[in-house]
Amino acid sequence: MPAHRTPYPFLKGHGTENDFVLLPDHDGTVHGDLDPARVRALCDRRAGIGGDGVLRVVRTAALDGGVAGPGSPAPGGSPEWFMDYRNADGSVSEMCGNGIRVFARHLVEEGLADPARPIPVATRDGVKTIRLEGDLVTVDMGPPALLGHTEVTVGATRWPARHVDMGNPHAVAFVDDLAPTGPVGALHEPPGHDPAVYPAGVNVEFVVRQGERHVAMRVHERGSGETRSCGTGACAVMVAAAEADGLGPADGAEYRVDLPGGTLTIAWTPQDRVLMTGPAVVVARGTTAL
Ligand SMILES: N[C@@H](CCC[C@H](N)C(=O)O)C(=O)O
């Protein structure tokens, strides 16, 4: 235990096995602006707690200009809670779809939000509204942005990819085979992408068709490597698949998206909003001085 740190509470949770360390910091007095080295130490799967990212749980009232980064809500603004998300490498992202379901589950379990009502949570991509129903959590992820066409590579293999923005950047590539022994490979390294299209890096999704309105995917996440699931990635995949199927928001389509860590249901509504539904659980709590 590092001698210079006072022990503080943490929780561990996951959504379809995309796992997170949660840091309650309601008044912003415990962690301040989380430094990347500490996030890396917390997410380390051998020397730390282990996780694909960190969710700092902080009141918007406690934010100051430097705490939450670009796009953060105004200090003291509504809603009450801000999800301060960091990737495992310590970098900041605008949004985390699986993380925000876990964040809402945590608020409810701690009596900090009423599960009978929609729960608004501020993120760097604006306010998301979350509804809980039994084991499932639905997030209104807002409108998708279908941007240009691009390309991703693994080794010598190239695939066309659709640039979809869900608040954070995605490249969606339809492939014939997801197996780690096939062309997509083990994804130990980030897939190649066009840095002019994605100057801040990209989350890359590889997708195969499983049936009508049913796909399976693997993802290499910016800042976290291959993960077992990515909520924003599943939303990007659904929108790209729907577009390829000749569908748009007016069709109100719903797709099943299978990921290595579980299944998410994604709908694209006539109001041009993407609704993501899936499980979210908090599995442990403790004290750390990392
Ligand atoms: N796993 C997340 C996405 C986390 C952020 C991403 N790695 C990025 O840098 O944009 C999800 O469930 O959406």
Automatic annotation (TrEMBL):
One of its GO terms (molecular function) is diaminopimelate epimerase activity. The record marks H170, E221 as: Could be important to modulate the pK values of the two catalytic cysteine residues. It is found in: Cytoplasm. It comes from the Bacteria. Substrate binds at N18, N87, G97, N98, N168, N203, E221, R222, G231, T232. InterPro entries: DAP_epimerase_AS, DAP_epimerase_DapF. PROSITE patterns: DAP_EPIMERASE (PS01326). Its EC number is 5.1.1.7. It is an enzyme of class 5 (isomerase). It holds the Pfam family DAP_epimerase. Pathway: Amino-acid biosynthesis; L-lysine biosynthesis via DAP pathway; DL-2,6-diaminopimelate from LL-2,6-diaminopimelate: step 1/1. It catalyses: (2S,6S)-2,6-diaminopimelate = meso-2,6-diaminopimelate. The active site is at C96, C230. Keywords: Amino-acid biosynthesis, Cytoplasm, Isomerase, Lysine biosynthesis. Homodimer. Belongs to the diaminopimelate epimerase family. Catalyzes the stereoinversion of LL-2,6-diaminopimelate (L,L-DAP) to meso-diaminopimelate (meso-DAP), a precursor of L-lysine and an essential component of the bacterial peptidoglycan. This is Diaminopimelate epimerase. The lineage of its organism: Bacteria, Bacillati, Actinomycetota, Actinomycetes, Propionibacteriales. The gene is dapF.
